[in-house]
Design brief:
13 helices, five-stranded mixed beta sheet, two-stranded antiparallel ribbon, alpha/beta, single chain
């Protein structure tokens, strides 16, 4: 995040962009008056991006772009195009419906809203970095997909074995999942079997081979993720409870130094900052934060569980808070907040790639 007093003091024009798969709608807004200087809807291609530059040139030279989905969203291509041309880009979230004026919705209106929302903010988000961060993001998405599909295939194998004809059940009964997959993948069809048994064996073999192939694919992605983390931020792997997948999740959310303005903002992004919930005579009460980056929240939860089991300092902390009357859930929440603080300081101060 970038902190500034007032965007009107540094630019003449804000170009808001509402991004979609095939088209982008842009509106140039006068930074001082908020008036609309021009609007255009273009195709999401290099030729369309060039037309957006023409709109910006006609509106003013001192400008900033306010774009939705600059990272892995529909605005990623436009963001890269603009950054190659040394344009200044800030990132915006997509609007909640309740915040749209009288429920009005159109692409040009959303582009105008994006520009005016950027003018109203005192802290503006910068796009996540490309390079190693984007490579990690792509590999993590592919690994998650492979793991999810492989897990689904394993469940189907287990369910089929339960309902399979008795000869098959007897052969696979009592086996643990890895052994069951190996046995099922090696099954052969015999012509003397009835149609039900043949169909069950064929499907079991197919699902087992699929699950094993997806496991191999996930392992390949994890190896590539580990190589990037080791070359970029090996210091993360030295922290207790942090492996390559957790480290990659943290790096994808953090991106680069200066993007997140404080450790409190990083905790809010991770969904581990407690939300005040006081009212009337009820004071000092907080709610669980269910917002933010849920993948990052899950990564911090994994770190907390690991440290509570293997790290002496974390176990001593848990014992002390237990004696104070805290529940295990409350202790984990507190520990995740401390982990977020330490990680942010480490990330901001530690080594980075050029």
């Amino acid at each position: 995040m970038t902190s500034l007093t007032d965007l009107r003091e540094v630019v003449d024009v804000v170009i808001g962009v509402d991004t979609h798969v095939l088209t982008h709608s842009a509106a140039a807004i006068d930074a001082r008056t908020g008036g609309v200087l021009g609007e255009v809807t273009v195709e999401a291609t290099a030729e369309g991006y060039a037309r957006l530059i023409e709109l910006a040139d006609s509106a003013g030279m001192l400008r900033v772009w306010a774009i939705e989905g600059t990272g892995g969203g529909h605005g990623a291509g436009l963001t890269r195009y603009l950054e190659r041309r040394q344009e200044v880009v800030v990132e915006l979230d997509r609007p909640e419906r309740a915040r749209r004026r009288n429920g009005a919705k159109s692409d040009p209106l959303d582009a105008i809203r994006a520009a005016r929302e950027a003018l109203a903010r005192t802290r503006l988000g910068t796009p996540r970095a490309a390079g190693d961060r984007q490579a990690l993001s792509v590999l993590m998405a592919a690994r998650r997909s492979a793991v999810a599909a492989g897990t689904d295939a394993q469940r189907q194998v287990f369910s089929l074995v339960i309902a399979a004809p008795e000869p098959l059940r007897a052969r696979l009964r009592g086996q643990k999942p890895p052994q069951m997959l190996t046995t099922a993948a090696a099954l052969r069809v015999h012509a003397s079997w009835d149609r039900e048994t043949i169909a069950t064996v064929t499907v079991l073999r197919s699902l087992a081979r699929r699950a094993r192939a997806l496991a191999d694919e996930a392992a390949i992605h994890e190896k590539a993720i580990l190589a990037i983390v080791r070359s970029w931020r090996p210091d993360l792997l030295d922290q207790p409870g942090i492996g390559p997948i957790v480290a990659a999740t943290v790096l994808c959310a953090w991106s680069h130094p200066g993007r997140i303005h404080s450790e409190a903002a990083f905790a809010m992004l991770a969904g581990v900052a407690p939300i005040p919930a006081t009212s009337g005579r009820v004071t000092n009460r907080h709610r669980l934060n269910r917002y933010g980056d849920r993948q990052l929240n899950r990564a911090l939860h994994t770190i907390a569980l690991s440290r509570l089991r293997y790290d002496d300092r974390s176990r001593q902390y848990a014992q002390r808070r237990t004696s104070e009357g805290k529940t295990p859930r409350e202790i984990r929440r507190c520990l995740k907040r401390y982990i977020a603080r330490d990680l942010y300081r480490l990330l901001e101060a530690g080594p980075t790639t050029p």
